[in-house]
## 1
Amino acid sequence: MAQVPSPTIRARRLRRELRRLRDRTGRTAEEVAKQLGWHRTKVIRFEVGHSRVMAKDVETLLDLYGATEKERETLTALHRQARQKGWWSAYGDVLPDDYVGFEAEADSISTFQSLYVPGLLQTEEYVRAIVRAGRGTADQDEIDRRVAARLARKALLARDQPPRLWIVIDEAAVRRVVGGPKVMRAQVARLVEACELPSVEVQILPFSAGAHAAMGGPFALLDYADPLLDPTVVYVDNDSSTILFEEERHVTRYRLMFDHLRAKALDPDESVAFLGRVADDYPV
């Protein structure tokens, strides 16, 4: 399966390029808005992604910033690509944030999960059990759509060049019985199978490791093929939302946290052996 350009990544790249061109002119966002007769926050909202930029607005900004012909071609193409639909748009009602769009074009994904098996390696039965538990008032149609959306994400690993996936999983995630013992046995077996993929590394953080740097919860670092064009982003999960961090200080903090977790976790070979023992604890 070939990789499809992510409109989420293209929209982010467009915002960054518009900010770069504005900085080149030495103008503040408020000065640009005033000169164009726009509301004073309009330019900032474009640049941080709080408002969708229209084609005519891109043209207006390029004129003001004195963009070269090459820059015009590049940014016009980015705007066109950013308006396309990713596969996840069909699940907009059950995929409320942009994480999947950022994940879709990642070259490397480094993630820590404390309570769940990571989404890209979940079995259908495990997904269904999680959705039912977390959406007690949902009807069957909503449950089915959430399950379908989660499973559709797994196509990422079937790409011609899948992302490098490095996962640290707290022991609690494989010990908690989600969906029953048979579901968990199959889920742990899926993790063992994934360990054989050349693009996947799995490490288990055992209870015996004690306190660690990510006691606050799960997170993911998403790296891209060209870090100058598409810098790393960090996603942090909590009970009600997902928070995106792009500033270098946040990226550095979470990268250090991930390195700390890797150092405290079992190495990949030990983790496979550990998962085998966990699987044996669940009845056939």
## 2
Amino acid sequence: MCLLLIAWKVHPTCPLIVAANRDEFYRRPTKPIHRWDDGSGIVGGRDLTSGGTWLGVTASGRFAAVTNVRDGKAEGTPPQSRGALPTGFLDSTATPQAYAAAADGDDFAGFNLLASDLDELFWVSNRFDGAGVAVEPGIHGLSNAQLDTPWPKVTAGKAALAAAVSEDSGAPDADVESYFELLHSTDPAPRADLPNTGVGVRREKQLSPLFVRTRFYGTRASTVLRVRSDGSFDLTERTFNSRRQTGETRIEETS
């Protein structure tokens, strides 16, 4: 997952709204969002290589999502996949703060993790200082650096999300197309605005749009999640390969 846009306690009836793009190699096997049949209660996609997820939610109102940290440095093979981090939180009763504090960064490659139980939302990373930061109410963006780092895609995404949230009724049957429209922006950032993460200018340019598409790597899934105050939610995902949209799935949980 390379972009998470979050409206936290901004909307009057949906305390958590997430619009996210997961970027990954097209060849990596993936299962679209579904209700897991392992007793965990997780609703989300699944990485079929490691068994974890990049974004998930439960009927009890728990939410978690992960991104990698991009710094251009080669890393050895870590003991665990980053996808185990959201899965571990969703399949537990730990508070977001406690889970963030206990996350063992040495077991994983560079990561950002967001975890919420609807009462609180925490961000934690093993590449930046702190054992977890409580996220304040507002519009936030997370890509492959610290929370709210002003990369062009984060800045543009946050502004577009704020506009979409302001027009969202929050009703279960409300149209979520405005969220997908912002997630599908393919406009690259101007060269002068590109971050320097050690991958070179050409690669930075390829990765700068909200929606990434290259020959072998790009946005595999766009996801919109709206969790209401009573714990009910709707989760909609569109999947892609290198050429086109390959599917759409919507899952609803009533209170």
## 3
Amino acid sequence: MRRYPRTGRGAVAPVAAIALLASACSPGSGPGGSGELDGVELTVAAKWTGAEEEGFRAVLDEFEAQTGASVSYESTGEDTGAYLGPKIEAGEPPDIAALPQPGLVDEYAERGELVPLSGAAATTLEEEYADYWQDLGTAGDETYGVLVKAAHKSLVWYRPDAFDEAGVQEPATWDDMVGTTSSTLSDAGITPFAMCGASGWTLTDWFENVYLSENGPESYDQLAAGELSWTDDSVVQSLETLADVWGEDDLMVGGRDGAVQTDFPSCVNQVYGQEDAAMVVEADFVAAPAREAGATVGENAVAFPFPAVGEDPPVVVAGDIAVAMTENEGVPELMAYLSSAEAQELWAEQGGYLSANSEVPTGAYEDEFTQGLAQTVLDAGEDVRYDLSDQVPSAFGATEGSGMWAILQDYLRDPGDPEGTAEELEQAASGS
């Protein structure tokens, strides 16, 4: 049976002894603080753009004000690996990178391209993050990263006014959503879904939620680990389930052709800006572009849990793991700051953000709706699962124009052959 080449991810390694004085492990005492890093220049790379980038820049601005360092931000685009590869080969990696896939932590750690976590950042990870979150930044018996930005990926965002106009309620099951809710919306002249098909990762989110709910955590884990073939009947069944929506042109803005040409966050604007659709399936970070479109989160931009396809509704999470790629001056201090409750509370205030740090109070989020989402991340139980496409090798699960992204885009264009699509997924997963 095929297994993906991965290092173990068992118990988190013992935290390294603190090697820096407390004053060197955290930023200064406040804005305009110690200036201990005057003249130090640092670079951080992450995939965030738009409102997400603006929120992160507010955090970097505060670090600069407290320490005197200068931090530049580089957007990697959707394919973080493709961005970092040439940088690493040229010997010019960013000082810190936010990796959107645990699989990338494994890959870079195996090649010796990451600096193990130590000092105040390691202490914060041990003391303020649950074991579930600590494990995500671990490769083999070493810890390299901290989950600095979490995402709740089992949400369906909607416009309450559209639901009220059609006379429908939040659905509890998949059949309710694609049957009663969608058909009633359509009858009222309201297109049910905006799709973000041009951003292939959003389609993997649809698949993962359906697969987890329909087949359960054990099969999900086996599929993620390469212990279950992608041609398995369970995969074919979930693809057939997706076709309940993906196969119906009138359920999505622009039909399938329009859906596969609409990226994230343009799909969010189709719901909350243009009001062309009632719903969009995507994570909590929809909040930021919804605000940009003029919506108020918790009032006219709300979400319900991804409905149960099988017995239980799914809970899929994802996130971005900060890792150090150099040992340059200032890197330990910035890693410590990014992992801290102080920085993440500021980040939470910007919107479009969830923290996995248990010391970040839910009151840091500006509305009750987001506060509730934040609590679900902190309370993640044993049935929650990390984004499957982010667990497999990035060449298969997280590369634009190939692997899962491209295959599911093709399936969205024409969902008439689930068995053939499953075979394509298997071939891509095995590298053949």
## 4
Amino acid sequence: MTEYHRCPEALLDGLADSRGGPGLSRALAEAQVSKHLLLIAGLLREWPGPAAERDRLAGAIQAARAAAPEAAARALGTPMVGAWAAIAGRAAERGRAERADLAHLAAVAVITCAAAGVDVELTVGARDGAVALPGLGRAITGDAATARIAVIDSTLTIDAGHGPVAIPGNRETGHWLPVRRLRATSGGIGVEIALDDVDPYRHGYHAPPEPRLSQAEFDRWQELFTEAWRLLTECAPERAAEIAAGLHTLVPLTGDGRSARSATIRHVFGVFGLTRPADAADFAVTLVHEYQHAKLSALLDVVQLTDPDDGRRYFAPWRTDPRPLAGLLQGVYAFAGVADTWRALRDTHARRDSAESRFADARLQVDRSLATLQASGALTPDGERFATRLRRFVDSLLAVPLPEPVARRAEQRHRELLERWSAATTAR
């Protein structure tokens, strides 16, 4: 059974205040578990194999949920389960679902039973010479098409035709690549976030995912993350606390050698993709930026904020293309967090002038874009309430004193962006 989720005013208002807090992050994550279960139910109706096989997998998941509901929910709610369910679900709707995609449900059942402490033995299909267990890692199986995975007393073993081998948790071997985790503690706030470079469903961003990182490269990520977390907990502890509660996974992306990139996928909560940031401050701001997108996307699974029939396109200073109203809302919400974080980082960032300039740009862009949203006439009643609360937060950013030359240059840059956008739009 899934739960029916409503959006209480406290949730809407708390998120509109741009932060939200750990409790609201957990509420959004709970709604995602129900979404994942609904998607899985749809995939079960498309099951290509024997009904007995389908029923065994469904029964294993149900047994895990009955034995340890919270532990099973944590496993089922992980982002890579959501990514798989969404990708396979869309393919099924179009009649293009591959058997390997549907059969990945067996891996989901394995991790759910392992989390819940339910003994089970299942056949899991191999793909590209490996079996992937969402959130745990990838087992190399060679030429074997399938592998038997057993969960006994929460210990996993895999047999790809050469006898059972224990899956060694976080220890990497020639046959097991665990999902490594970035860890940091600062200001009394601890965090653990997976850096997933092995899951087959970690794609869908505007840049391809990196293959397995070397240990030296992972260590560079860890060093940068540790410093970014220190900055965030010292300067924006409320944002750090909600990120620790709701952000589960980062996917390293292949860079173009010119600039850092990051993106959040609309249908998956608790994960985003990024190239390795240039420095700790950019990493801290990127964590806030993309988690803002994640929160809003998860909220939109529960409540409608914009009129879906509004076909107009709008200027968004973060993009060169005209944006629909829902896309403009995403930008406003994300960059409200960006502006607030640069504001907070001004006093500790080694490049204070740069931080102050970026704060000035972001708050002005958010102010003007939010005004466009509010004047559109295409917000739902909940959207109006959300925008009104968000306006209060943005006004608090506008009230922060800035040197007059800094504010003036931000105004000039905004005018230039609008002029270039208008010229490009007219030329289309």
